[in-house]
Write a structure and sequence with these properties.
CATH architecture of the largest domain: Alpha-Beta Barrel
Number of domains: 2
CATH topology of the largest domain: TIM Barrel
Strand content: 5-15%
Number of strands: 11
Radius of gyration: 18 Å
Helix content: 40-55%
Number of helices: 14
């Protein structure tokens, strides 16, 4: 990669390929494998209590000498403990999401930490830049998990955000191979963040039955639901249909929250309950058909990017 790539320089990585910090999927094994392969691995703190996160950070550091990051949803109930722990453990890169970047960005940067914030529209991209973040992840609504209400696709979002901000930009949502990476780079991104494909990696902590369900997914098998509460893209299963029916009947946010209850994502993604669990995954699941090591995924995306770029140039 060219030494002018701002994301590679910012993180100290070989390839501008970033593994998303997904709940119940992105533990230390996956993060260290991606980092060892030349990308940036991320530990997903959203499904971890502080001491479990500490353990994952320590194990990740032991498994790789290369840079890795931690993703922290800012709505986390134990935020002060989490932030203090990140400093204690010497984490150098933090991705924040699901909250106001003004709350923690300056504090993190004062500790010498590189901060990246995830957004789904230009309004929040501008707020993140004003808050002083070092880079932005702009995530289109194709992405799995929690998402923007605007339903702006990656193809539209990336150029909108690129024109709005000056800081380095990472594209996310619907990216599963090198062709998609090339498209995002052409639109102004300087790196890509990949979630769904890494959720099926051999090192992902997702349950084997959940991985198998991802690989069986076809076009149209996911949908963005719960827009009245916290929008989330789910695989269609009995739990999804329960939510969908409630929404069609005009359920209030409180009623939807009651159906959701507690621990649904853990039940589905970590424990493999495909009936009653919440199965968060992106549209790109329809393109996937096998489990492979994370290092193979990084290499395949990079090689595919180079091949697609060469083909485009040569015509």
């Amino acid at each position: 990669m060219s030494t002018t790539n701002r994301i590679c320089k910012l993180f100290g990585i070989q390839y501008p390929i970033i593994q998303a910090g997904m709940v119940w999927c992105s533990g230390w094994r996956l993060a260290s494998a991606v980092s060892n392969a030349g990308g940036l691995g991320i530990i997903g703190a959203g499904s971890m209590h502080p001491e479990m996160l500490r353990s994952h950070i320590q194990k990740c550091r032991a498994a790789t000498g290369r840079p890795f990051a931690v993703n922290v949803p800012l709505l986390y109930p134990e935020m002060e403990a989490i932030m203090g722990l990140l400093v204690e453990e010497g984490v150098k890169i933090v991705f924040t999401s699901a909250g106001n970047p003004n709350t923690w960005t300056k504090w993190l940067k004062d500790q010498g930490i590189t901060v990246v914030h995830v957004v789904s529209n230009t309004k929040f991209a501008l707020k993140a830049e004003a808050a002083g973040v070092d880079a932005i992840v702009a995530e289109g609504f194709e992405a799995g998990g929690h998402n923007g209400r605007e339903e702006t696709t990656t193809l539209c979002l990336i150029p909108l955000v690129r024109d709005a901000v000056q800081i380095p930009l990472i594209a996310a949502g619907g990216i599963g191979d090198g062709r998609a990476m090339l498209a995002c780079m052409a639109l102004g991104a300087e790196a890509v963040q990949v979630g769904t494909r890494f959720a099926t990696a051999a090192e992902s902590s997702a349950h084997a039955d959940f991985k198998a369900r991802i690989l069986a997914a076809k076009e149209g098998d996911t949908e963005l639901v719960m827009k009245q509460t916290v929008p989330v893209r789910l695989l269609k299963n009995p739990f999804y249909h329960q939510i969908k029916q409630a929404e069609l009947k005009g359920a209030t946010p409180e009623e939807l929250q009651s159906i959701l209850g507690r621990g649904r994502a853990k039940k589905g993604m970590l424990e493999g309950d495909l009936e009653e669990g919440e199965l968060e995954i992106g549209q790109v699941a329809a393109m996937l058909d096998h489990i492979e090591p994370a290092a193979h995924i990084v290499a395949d995306i990079w090689d595919g990017y180079l091949a697609a770029k060469k083909k485009l140039v040569e015509g």
